[in-house]
Amino acid sequence: MRNLTLLTDLYQLTMMNGYFQENIHEDIVVFDMFFRKNPCNGGYTIVCGIEQLVDYINNLKFKDEDIKYLESLNLFSKNFLDFLRDFKFTGDIYSVEEGSVMFPNEPIIRVKAPLYQAQLIETTLLNIINFQSLIATKASRVCFAAQGNPVLEFGLRRAQGPDAGIYGARAAIIGGCSGTANVLAGKMFNIPIVGTHAHSWVQKFDSEIESFRAYANVYPNKALLLVDTYDVLNSGVPNAIKVFNELKEKGYKPLGIRIDSGDLEYVSKEARKMLDNAGFEDVSIVASNDLDEYKILNLKSLGAKINSWGVGTKLITSSDCPALGGVYKLCASEENGKLVPKIKISEDPEKITNPGYKKVIRIYNKHNKAEADLILLHDEVIDTNKNLTVFHPIYTWKKKTFKEYYVKELLKPLFLNGKCLHERKSVMDIREYTKNELNTLWPQYRRIDSPEEYKVDLSKKLWELKTNMLNEKKQK
Amino acid sequence: MRNLTLLTDLYQLTMMNGYFQENIHEDIVVFDMFFRKNPCNGGYTIVCGIEQLVDYINNLKFKDEDIKYLESLNLFSKNFLDFLRDFKFTGDIYSVEEGSVMFPNEPIIRVKAPLYQAQLIETTLLNIINFQSLIATKASRVCFAAQGNPVLEFGLRRAQGPDAGIYGARAAIIGGCSGTANVLAGKMFNIPIVGTHAHSWVQKFDSEIESFRAYANVYPNKALLLVDTYDVLNSGVPNAIKVFNELKEKGYKPLGIRIDSGDLEYVSKEARKMLDNAGFEDVSIVASNDLDEYKILNLKSLGAKINSWGVGTKLITSSDCPALGGVYKLCASEENGKLVPKIKISEDPEKITNPGYKKVIRIYNKHNKAEADLILLHDEVIDTNKNLTVFHPIYTWKKKTFKEYYVKELLKPLFLNGKCLHERKSVMDIREYTKNELNTLWPQYRRIDSPEEYKVDLSKKLWELKTNMLNEKKQK
């Protein structure tokens, strides 16, 4: 397991040293992680990377060489550096379950810990959760566009470094992909891996037909042939059909063809006709080449004859929105043994934080559809025997009352007093959990273009606290 | 050092097994790595990541657990898996020097190796070089826009995983950034790290002025204060000035203020006036908040009073073009001891490859400005005593003749017969090399919007080979 203790912004360490000098480093504080916008103007976000966050926290330790490096910066007191030698996370972390569907502005991770500890972990917590959540969400959009066809993650060569390839593949599977080409990710996470051959295989042989024969010879049960090295319809597909016939005679069942360039609509339709006419109605047509949810949606609407989608660059980088802007904001700080709410104000109203030690509940109707989320102060209780009225935090006249409903509390303990309570789940189990989560959403929140905005409201008590704090700060 | 041997696409392994079964796996082949477009519609690309590529190659080894995993896939023959146990890279790799400025369609890395070896390394070679080259290039664009002001890399929390943060910081420095906030990158690569405090520092204290005083108390020589937690002009700057005066009385020199939100043009101009009026003409104004080369260019053109630029998300992800599309294509294959050129054809003319075992030279004028690059067959010789005429590979009537010129061969050996010849350089030395490289470019290739296209031509011999091969393949 990698030790990423120094993977942090320098200001976390300068602040930690400052708090230490001021002797307030052990003050208990609460930070919320949340994001302000769903990726790709979408209607939801799948939270992913919790397991890697747990590993990161469990492996926090400043090694001798780390301390020596920090010493060399001439920024930190000797006392502080000695103090770091015994660093151990001793706080509480609550988080939503990995694979959960979440929405803007609600806490998805809540850290309550001594100030210096909560500060150190900010950067890597955000790094891990922002990236994996981004890719899981993107994958879920691509799979939605593919309308049940398998989507395969092919992006490693264009991923932003090795980790992006590895953890991006993990997140893509959780978001709904059926497999990845990434072998190391397959080994690490026990997820399905896929792959056949490249253009270079075809080029290596004297002719395309020889290359196809050789491939079918080695993998008679897995003959999926790449048909666009020279000319799909005049060479690739006719050659593939010859080899499929040879396989059929020997009693094997060919799998399909892959097209990686050109006019995917026209070529897939023509190839389908040629395959069908040759009696290969069952073999698949796999398409790749710069695909994303928008291109797949378009090809689907045009009736392209594609059964399976290989998606590379645009999935593994989430190319039209390559970052989830998750933030980590101080919302409470202990003073004389009591948690006092804190707020960050901004000229930009969207950047004002929700103060206080909070929790989040999801409100479901009796058909198990999610109707709204509500952010409350930590000690508030909902009596589900009574009607529940929620209101929009800005347009407060927008109200909704729930009569038959039940609620779930979304934040669950990952660490309590530094003790890890996280139970590992397989990636395929998390994938299943995500699938169920997505099924609790009404379709209008899932659509790719201009989805409805899911309700995330504040309890009356929290709304009043926030309004009062804003009025007070702005009077000064 | 991490062993990334399994970090590859599954099809590399299925092809390797196929070649092994066909007993052609030891055939010597040549692959070129090149890209087809510069990032962000720019005029050049900085090649970066060569050192990590070398580490990757040097650490290639299939461990027992890797073999066991591959066995579990039921795809590979026992012989092949045994063969992998002794895998070692024994080929040649030529590459441009790290930090070089390169252009579309020219080989930047050339691999000549037994087929099975050349195939295995494709994916991770591309992964490493694509990402770091992307970020180095993006950083260079941002620094160009900042017109000599320091640019600081602040993106770790939004980077696409830990590696993207670490190697992205390295690449950003090579591309011209003055520092990074990433502590681990600072330690690993001995590069400058920077950072002061966050909004949470200000929130933690009862008032902004107390937080500033506490910071100045701990870091009297490094007082750079974040002034936008509550209200920049009505609270942040006046409080900073008070604390700067207190520092001045004690004989310290304050460093500056940082603004992380709001109207950077207006606020920086007003803050500058306030600071100047208080006698702090020397202190810096650092700006951050969703910056990139376009926003910096705009703020510069409006006369914003900003001395230093913190750039996060949009640099570390290269958000408007989050992938460099580098590819790795078979260009020659040994047959009876002779390298035979290979070509990949596509309906899309841009995707047709340059066949043959090739090299690249750069043509400089006597003022050391780069005038054009020329791709030649490996055994071609340029006699620089004679005039040299180059021509456009598509619009062949576009010609240029060089009279007083000299040439440099760009590809240099990294590995010969598996032996590593790479000499490590410090990141700061590579950064200096890149700076010199950029100085060899005429300004029209460096501008951010609509740069001129740098000439990359084919030698007559190579052009004829390609044209003949295309005619021949298309006749069939």
Automatic annotation (TrEMBL), chains A, B:
GO terms for biological process: NAD+ biosynthetic process via the salvage pathway. Catalyzes the first step in the biosynthesis of NAD from nicotinic acid, the ATP-dependent synthesis of beta-nicotinate D-ribonucleotide from nicotinate and 5-phospho-D-ribose 1-phosphate. Residues 152-344 form the Nicotinate/nicotinamide phosphoribosyltransferase domain. It comes from Tepidibacter thalassicus DSM 15285. It catalyses: 5-phospho-alpha-D-ribose 1-diphosphate + nicotinate + ATP + H2O = nicotinate beta-D-ribonucleotide + ADP + phosphate + diphosphate. Pathway: Cofactor biosynthesis; NAD(+) biosynthesis; nicotinate D-ribonucleotide from nicotinate: step 1/1. Transiently phosphorylated on a His residue during the reaction cycle. Phosphorylation strongly increases the affinity for substrates and increases the rate of nicotinate D-ribonucleotide production. Dephosphorylation regenerates the low-affinity form of the enzyme, leading to product release. Signal peptide: none annotated. Its EC number is 6.3.4.21. This is Nicotinate phosphoribosyltransferase. GO terms for molecular function: nicotinamide phosphoribosyltransferase activity; nicotinate phosphoribosyltransferase activity. Residues 6-130 form the Nicotinate phosphoribosyltransferase N-terminal domain. Belongs to the NAPRTase family. InterPro entries: Aldolase_TIM, N/Namide_PRibTrfase, NAPRTase_C, NAPRTase_N, Nic_PRibTrfase-Fam, Nic_PRibTrfase_pncB, Nicotinate_pribotase-like_C. GO terms for cellular component: cytosol. Keywords: Glycosyltransferase, Ligase, Phosphoprotein, Pyridine nucleotide biosynthesis, Transferase. Gene3D superfamilies: Aldolase class I (3.20.20.70), nicotinate phosphoribosyltransferase (3.20.140.10). Residues 358-466 form the Nicotinate phosphoribosyltransferase C-terminal domain. Pfam families: NAPRTase, NAPRTase_C, NAPRTase_N.
